[in-house]
Amino acid sequence: MGLFRSMQVFVATVQEGSTSAASSRLGISPAMVGQHVASLEERLGTRLLNRTTRRQSLTDFGKTYVEQCRDILERVAIAEQDAEAAQAEPRGQLKITAPTTFGTEVLMPALQRYRALAPEVTLDITLTDRNVDIVDEGFDIAFRIGELPDSRLIARRLAPYRMMICAAPAYLSQRGHPDHPADLANHEAIGFTPAARSPWKLAKGNEEVEVSPQIAITVNSGQAVRTAARAGLGVIMQPAMLVGSDIKAGLLVQLFADWHLRERSMSLIYHRDRRMTPRLRSIIAFAISEFGTASDE
After folding, report:
1. Helices 19-26 and 30-44 sit at what angle, rounded to 10 degrees?
2. How many domains does the chain divide into?
3. Domain boundary residue among 85, 102, 119?
4. What contacts 152, CB < 8 A, 6 or more positions away?
5. Full residue range of the structural domain in which residue 179 is found
6. Would you state the pLDDT for residue 250?
7. Does residue 296 fall inside a structural domain?
8. Interacting residues of 184 by C-beta distance below 8 A, sequence separation 6+
9. Do 171 and 121 belong together in one domain?
């Protein structure tokens, strides 16, 4: 007899409370129900049910085994539902959260391409630099910069967050062009809160430099940092995705292009136990394709 079918019959027998009730539910004879349970007991080498002419009860091992059977049957059912859902059109709402700068400058423009792939999916997007608890706050996925300590989450690595140091031509004309990262100690900088006071770390070959510019202004918006730099208020260290277009347009000048700045990891995260619906599967696949991948966590 098939092990999986015997598990189904055993669970039904326990749920219904008797062999005859289980046989009616399953559409098989009481004798066949008894054979399935006996087959399991023979396979396991121990009794699962205590039987009398009037009643049945689970043995101590039977109590443990029936819960294990229920778990297995539930997992198989979910797998079958997921396989069926994989063929379905993505639809419904996705709740997404992302850092403000990444969300504004990168994610939002890219979503036009996602909407073309999944037109029946609606998007509820929250942009914040706070580390949102996606489980407690009901988000489907989050784009996260930095480390990921929460074991409840699955993380898919994306391309790292590359940083650049730059300043406006007007600022450099007034204050001079720093030739070495150590020169930044004599320059004013615009800091992004909350990392404004953290030192800037650069490396070239075997040389490593850690420098703390004079923070003249701190602000909690990457876009505001960029605007302040373009106005000539100081040197900034910001993501390449934010300042790249300004550098190409000559509004900002990249400093120390031959130096390496420490990159920050970026990941797409979602709940470990979240059912893989077509819409969730579609946004994960899109994000990995659109924003690049590294090894998974």
Report:
1. 110
2. 3
3. 85
4. 135, 271, 272, 273
5. 163-261
6. 96
7. no
8. 165, 178, 200, 211, 213, 235
9. no
